[in-house]
């Protein structure tokens, strides 16, 4: 019975071979004489022919172009599907029928889809050692599901990273605008310093307004930076949760570790990226520079205010000294002179 099946398979395989390329038919086309050939072979053979065609086998002449042989095409497709299901044992090289195909989860890794073993080899070589044995078809479906889940996770992660990049760009634009405002404020403080050094008069109210403006700018910057850091933390937490959730779903598959190692999307790498990002935020040049500018503006403002207070105290002391000097001079004059001055004032 087995020999008859083998002879039948050999006959069918021979009937499925193209006489031009000597391979299994690919999109077979049939001539009027009944012979069929691959579509590519026919097109190459008759690419320069316009009217009359000749069969490569029987040399029959005809004028109608060849058409697709749908019956033969369907038969070829079924044979290819059947051949795809036929596997050979990786150990004994015998043909393993679909119901007798197994794989070892402990010995095979990401490419275990091709590591098919027959039931006899699995029992003698793996089951006795306590290895986990699974049906080839079931294992193939699990790996396919795991790959699909992993691909969905990668797609979602990439989408989150794109959103992080967009939000980061928007926040960076806000920080740049704050830098411009801080530069303008610093230029105004420099003008105040020049005016004070030149002996100009600036009211205390103007200085307080400038200080209030600088304080508001600093609060806006700090709030914007805090919101940005919180947003990035939330994004990275979502990525980490997504990675860990998918890891739990795929942990039962032996191929998961190899897939993750190749993709580079482990939860540990996501955590390291998050930590490195926030270290950059804490130690970045933007934060350091803004802190320096804020401290510098505050120092200049305090110096201006102290200078203004000193000038005000100096003017007050000069007025008091002038009044005291006038009183002392008047008291030192003779009585007659004092009376004359009083009479003159009257």
Automatic annotation (TrEMBL):
Keywords: Metal-binding, Zinc, Zinc-finger
Region named Disordered: 311-331
Pfam families: zf-RING_UBOX (PF13445)
Keyword Transcription regulation: no
GO MF term list: zinc ion binding
Residue stretches making up the RING-type domain: 18-59
Name of the protein this chain belongs to: RING-type domain-containing protein
The organism of origin for this protein: Wuchereria bancrofti
Record lineage: Eukaryota, Metazoa, Ecdysozoa, Nematoda, Chromadorea
């Amino acid at each position: 019975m087995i020999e008859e099946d083998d002879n039948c398979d050999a006959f069918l395989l021979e009937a499925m071979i193209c006489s031009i390329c000597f391979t299994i038919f690919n999109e077979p086309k049939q001539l009027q004489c009944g012979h069929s050939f691959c579509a590519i072979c026919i097109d190459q053979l008759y690419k320069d022919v316009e009217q009359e065609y000749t069969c490569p086998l029987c040399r029959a002449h005809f004028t109608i172009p060849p058409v697709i042989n749908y019956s033969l095409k369907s038969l070829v497709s079924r044979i290819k599907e059947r051949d795809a299901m036929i596997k050979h044992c990786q150990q004994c090289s015998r043909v393993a029928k679909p119901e007798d195909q197994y794989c070892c989860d402990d010995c095979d890794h990401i490419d275990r889809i091709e590591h098919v073993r027959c039931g006899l080899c699995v029992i003698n070589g793996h089951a006795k050692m306590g290895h986990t044995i699974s049906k080839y078809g079931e294992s193939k479906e699990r790996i396919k599901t795991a790959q699909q889940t992993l691909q969905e996770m990668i797609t979602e992660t990439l989408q989150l990273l794109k959103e992080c990049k967009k939000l980061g760009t928007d926040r960076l634009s806000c920080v740049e605008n704050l830098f411009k405002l801080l530069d303008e404020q610093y230029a105004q403080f420099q003008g105040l310093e020049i005016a004070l050094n030149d002996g100009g008069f600036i009211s205390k109210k103007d200085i307080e307004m400038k200080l209030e403006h600088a304080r508001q700018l600093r609060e806006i910057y700090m709030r914007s930076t805090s919101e940005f850091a919180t947003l990035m933390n939330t994004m990275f937490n979502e990525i980490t949760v997504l990675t860990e959730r998918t890891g739990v779903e795929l942990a039962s598959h032996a191929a998961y570790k190899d897939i993750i190692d190749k993709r580079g999307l482990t939860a540990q790498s996501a955590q390291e990226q998050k930590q490195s990002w926030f270290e950059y935020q804490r130690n970045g040049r933007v934060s350091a520079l803004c802190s320096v500018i804020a401290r510098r503006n505050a120092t200049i403002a305090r110096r201006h205010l102290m200078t203004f207070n000193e000038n005000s105290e100096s003017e007050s002391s000069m007025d008091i000294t002038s009044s005291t000097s006038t009183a002392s001079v008047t008291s030192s004059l003779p009585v007659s002179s004092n009376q004359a001055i009083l009479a003159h004032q009257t």
